[in-house]
Every structure is written in C-alpha cells, then in structure tokens.
Amino acid sequence: MRYIISPSQFHSLVYRYLTEIFSNEDFRNYKNPHVEDGSVWRVEIYTDDGEHQMSYFWYGPGEDDDGNPHNGMGSLYIDSNLVDNLRMSLNVRESKIIDIIADWVSEKLKVDIDEVGITREAGRRSVY
User: Fold this and answer.
1) Model-level pTM?
2) Which residue has the higher pLDDT, 83 or 3?
3) In the chain, where does DSSP find H-type helix?
4) DSSP state, residue 22
5) For 73, what's the count of Cα atoms within 13 Å in the CB-facing half-sphere?
6) Angle at 95 between CA 68 and CA 120, to 5 degrees
C-alpha cells in the first residue's frame, strides 16, 4: 500500500528517524594532529547501538588538490547501509535520501556540507 505525503512530511519523517537512531548524539570530534592551527578536523557519527554510520570532514580555507582557492570545504561520507535501508523502506531515490541526511547533519553539527559520498565503511575514509 502506498501513501501520498507532502515533501515537508517526508522530510520530517526522515529527520525523526535519524534523530531517533542518533538520539545519544555520539558525535566524536577529532582535530588533525598534523595541522597546528586546527583548521582540519572530522566528526565521527555513531548510532545509539554504537555502529559507525557517518564521517564529516572539514578542511579550512586554502587550496584544493588542483590548486584552486576555497573558503573551507565540508565533506560527508555516509555508510551505504543507512542509505539503502531508508531508500528501500521509503521507496525513494538514493539522491533524495542523501540530500535529507546531509541537511540533517548540517543542522545537527551546524556545519556546511559541500560534497557527499557513500561508502561501505564511513570510518575507513579517515585521512589522518
């Protein structure tokens, strides 16, 4: 059986689900020990069951790998199991779920997210 709900109701549904599985707010912050000014850091996000589900990386103002200047860059990596569970349960396209998860993380951590990736093991994306 299918139900028709508004986009805002759908958004709220996913937010409630994420808030529930991450209710303990086990967000572990780490600064890159190789960057003394603290402009490079990450946050590891764990469910209430202790499962690592997301990693957020912040790179302070500087240049990207191609030498292009930027004012800071935030990257989010989401475990594919979280995306797949939501996508299949709600019967919606992957990109929509990713956008909503990124919005939720952005609001929770009060950060900007410039790029999002899906990974099998979000914690393995650590660069330091």
Assistant:
1) 0.83
2) 83
3) 7-21, 80-90, 94-109
4) T
5) 11
6) 80
